[in-house]
Amino acid sequence: MLAYTYVGPERFELLEKPRPTLIDPRDAIVRVTLGSICTSDLHIKHGSVPRAVPGITVGHEMVGVVEEVGAAVRSVRPGQRVAVNVETFCGECFFCRHGYVNNCTDPDGGWALGCRIDGGQAEYVRVPHADQGLTPIPDAVSDEAALLVGDVLATGYWAARISGITSDDTVLILGAGPTGLCTLLCARLHRPRRLIVCEPDPVRAAFVRTHWPDVLLTTPDACRDFVLSHSEHGGADVVMEVAGSPTSFRQAWECARPNATVTVVALYDEPQVLPLPEMYGKNLTFKTGGVDGCDCAETLRLIASGQLDTTPLITHRFPLDRIDEAYRLFESHADGVIKVALTPPTGAKS
Ligand SMILES: [Zn+2]
Ligand SMILES: [Zn+2]
Question: Closest ligand to 128 CA?
Answer without folding.
Answer: 2
